[in-house]
Amino acid sequence: MDDCTLPVMNTGLRGVDIASSKICDVQGKKGKLIYRGFLIQDLAQKANFEEICFLLLYERLPKKDELKDFEQSLKQKRQVPENVFSFLKTLPIDMNPMDVLQMATPLLIQNDTNIGKSGVENTLYSAENLIAGMATITAAWGRIRNNKEVIEPNNDLNHAANFLYMLNGEIPDDETAHFFDTGLVLHAEHSFNASTFTARQVASTRAHIYAAISAAIGSLSGALHGGANVRVMKMLKEIGSVDKIDNYINNILSSGGLIMGLGHAVYQTDDPRALILAPMSKRMGQIANQPIWYELSRALEKKGKAAFKAKKQREIFCNVDFYSASLFYAMGIETDLFSPLFAISRVSGWAAHVIEEQFAMAAPKPSLYRPGAEYVGDYCGPDECVYTDLDER
Amino acid sequence: MDDCTLPVMNTGLRGVDIASSKICDVQGKKGKLIYRGFLIQDLAQKANFEEICFLLLYERLPKKDELKDFEQSLKQKRQVPENVFSFLKTLPIDMNPMDVLQMATPLLIQNDTNIGKSGVENTLYSAENLIAGMATITAAWGRIRNNKEVIEPNNDLNHAANFLYMLNGEIPDDETAHFFDTGLVLHAEHSFNASTFTARQVASTRAHIYAAISAAIGSLSGALHGGANVRVMKMLKEIGSVDKIDNYINNILSSGGLIMGLGHAVYQTDDPRALILAPMSKRMGQIANQPIWYELSRALEKKGKAAFKAKKQREIFCNVDFYSASLFYAMGIETDLFSPLFAISRVSGWAAHVIEEQFAMAAPKPSLYRPGAEYVGDYCGPDECVYTDLDER
């Protein structure tokens, strides 16, 4: 896209290309999501989360031995510093898990003897430390706030299965673990979304990767960003049964509201991730003996799309949150952990972007993101305001 | 500036106006810095930090009673939750104070019963809680890492004097307290610099202000942003005496290096803040019986400017960091606390920007900052790469 085909003023930079990147391609019209050249459909079907992390960080698929070494390296980093747990135990149990994760993540610095030294190898080490450690922190908070003992990582399990084990205290069945793994693969990367832009921006000041990832977690915590599948789940519960969908849709559309999980800023067709998540959601509902959430979602999708088209004369499509809600819910995961799940996956993409921002030679740019702003505040005349003393106001 | 007079691609958005704002005007050519219509020179001379906070947050100067109430309100928020201290005590004493501040700041949420509720009044309350609390956290870490007892806030003192008291355990003399107060005034706001842009960006997702400010601290921690006056101080120590300046400058300029504290991305004349800081640095050196740092700075400024002009045929100017280094150092503040000092001042500006981002009706923009990026990664042919199975690689 040409630099100046779109306005940049007060548009949130929406759709304005501001940088070049080799990490991810999102082709909104075609519904294609591509990590480092590979279609998400292929990756979701064939690769596990560890392999995706390698691909994102090291810019290519690993060979068999490399993947084994990488998995081993992540396992070695699952143990977090002891003061993480003592810290979490001092927090009120109703604290938002995203706030907890934003705060606790930089504690992983303590396991990183290279912190402060520059160099891409050191940052790759830190990235692995973050990917491994944030899963442990999230699971630990899921336990501690429910007054349960923290579970030590189990190195017989891969990243996805081990997370569910640390969260629930039980080794998940293979199918559930696989679905969760695929969920992590699907959420790992999505180009310059808001939280990734935050990570890049913090990294551009040459802050270390822990500062950048913590900031990105803060960005993801916003209701307009990471919280969408929580609202999908809330909506599904509110609807409650298929026979109430028509009424729900009518009320929403006539009041100018939105159907959660339908519509996306970039895709102009169904989000490719939603197409992968839907059958997993269906099967997970069967496994968990809770078919209702998938059934509701599927019926809502059909009826919602039709109603939207009838009313607005254009189509609307499923986004990633539409079926991830029912999938994660059927796994028994508490809804306010959905955003942290997003974070423990997306950290892989964030890390790749931090590294690209700080080390890529292909896209040199002057130091840091420092946009301008037009001052539209009032002066108090033709020039600056006159400061009157306190007694004279 | 017109939307498209400057390129936006891989330029770090440098100089590209992306939003309108009523908070701050920086006129680089004229060397003017303006908060809410008022020249920094007037504010630095006549207002204290609390008044600046009021001005930035409430968009006008306070009346006498309003300022009194505001000061009282900040005092009530100086006490931080007890688990802040217990948390800090678990940290390794060599942890970077900016990392500590980024982590600990969201703990202030616990004192904020309105968290999660929207509305500008609630966010203003949170802003005051952050301004008051971050000073306490910073001072506490300054004590704890030196194995000293945490000092309770003293509500007979204003914000600046109380910070120095909490840090040093002694009530500062009036002149030192006044200089520190003015230092806070000068660092409070500077338009869309990198950390402020981070704060706005996180706030644009509708994350709460604690998430946004924590992220901004992360951004400020970067070497290209908040750490400049630390490097000025390091340079001054390295030079050591006035007779070594010529040699130092020659070495730096012939190796293509930079003289720390000279040059600024926006100002094309001396930074107005440097002009205010210089005499304070001089006087503080006298008070502390350490005139060397100011003397070195002054001589380096003169010789450095002349050498730069002779070599590069253009002028270079002092930035804010050039004299704040020697000022804070003569106050006895440890150099790695310089960036946290910046943060406990700038939080006032960050908060004003968060509020403008989330609540200003004057500049409606579509939800969040979500720029585009041009994908320049390789495909493996005309289309996407073919995923080969692990065994076949």
Quick recap of the structure?
With 393 residues, chain A is mostly helical. The first copy, chain A, contains 16 helices and five strands.
Keywords, please?
homodimer, mainly alpha, three-stranded antiparallel β-sheet, Cytochrome p450-Terp, domain 2, 2 domains, 393 residues, Citrate Synthase, domain 1
The CATH H-level homologous superfamily of the largest domain in chain A: Citrate Synthase, domain 1
Q: CATH class of the largest domain in chain A, anyone?
A: Mainly Alpha
- Taking the alpha carbons of the first and last residues of chain A, their distance comes to 53 Å
Counting H and I runs of at least 4 residues, what is the number of helices of chain A? 16
Give helix % range of chain A: 40-55%
The largest interface is: A-B, 116 and 115 residues
What is the subunit arrangement here?
Answer: homodimer
Question: How would you characterize the overall build of this protein?
Answer:
Two copies of one chain form a homodimer. Chain A is mainly alpha-helical and 393 residues long. The first copy, chain A, has two domains: 19-224 and 336-359, Citrate Synthase, domain 1; 228-329, Cytochrome p450-Terp, domain 2 (Orthogonal Bundle). Helices cover 53% and strands 5% of the residues of chain A. A three-stranded antiparallel sheet of chain A has the order 2-3-4. In chain A, helix 3 packs across helix 6 and helix 5 (97-104) packs antiparallel against helix 10. The first copy, chain A, is globular. The interface between A and B is large, with 116 and 115 residues. Strand 5 of chain A pairs parallel with strand 1 of chain B.
